[in-house]
Amino acid sequence: MRTIWSLFYGVLYVLYTVPFMKRYQKLDRDNYTRAEYNQLVHRVPKQFARKFFKQSGSTMVVCGEENIPEAPYLIVGNHQANYDIFAYLGYFKEPFGFISKVEVSKIPIVKPWMEVMDCLFLDRKIAGNRLKPLKKV
Fold first, then answer.
1. Tens-digit pLDDT profile for the chain (137 aa)?
2. How far apart, in whole angstroms, are the C-alpha atoms of residue 65 and residue 50?
3. Which of 16, 18, 64, 112 is the most exposed place for a label (fewest CB within 10 A)?
């Protein structure tokens, strides 16, 4: 029953975020530093992920943050639990973007949010495209 309630809650919360996403789409990025823009547009997805995680009855324990370098780094998720995206969004200190399969870009509301967050979509069916982003936002 908790799973059904979590999904229902997640859908309602995603719909709640639409006005924020529309506002972020209209932002003039030139008025913000990169860090300011990232902090602004990642605030709502971070809240969503934390609330969804909590609603599911899960708890999060973060270990090893001191090992994250100051330099650029890559996070690779294995999606074994389907909650890793929520864990990344909600509990990583610094904002970040995703590299996602192009099929995700067909999901309404998710695609515009990912575009606002500067995510990349890759078409895995095109061999030469595997290392080149399909669309850079």
1. 777 888 888 889 889 999 999 999 999 999 999 889 999 999 999 999 998 888 888 888 989 988 888 887 878 787 777 788 888 899 988 888 888 888 988 988 989 999 999 888 888 777 665 555 545 54
2. 17
3. 64
Burial 49-79 (b: 16+ CB within 10 A, else e): bbebbebbeeeeeeeeeeeeeeeeeeeeeee
How far is the C-alpha of 67 from the C-alpha of 93, rounded, in Å? 13
Task: Please name the residue that has the structure tokens 């006005």.
Answer: 19
Are 118 and 95 in contact, with CB atoms under 8 Å apart? no
Q: To which residue do tokens 């995206």 refer?
A: 85
**Would you say the C-alpha torsion 98, 80, 61, 13 has a positive or negative sign?**
positive
The reported pTM is 0.79
Tell me how far CA of residue 127 lies from CA of 30, 101, 106, 132, 137, in angstroms: 35, 13, 21, 10, 21
Say how far residue 102 (Cα) sits from the centre of its chain: 15
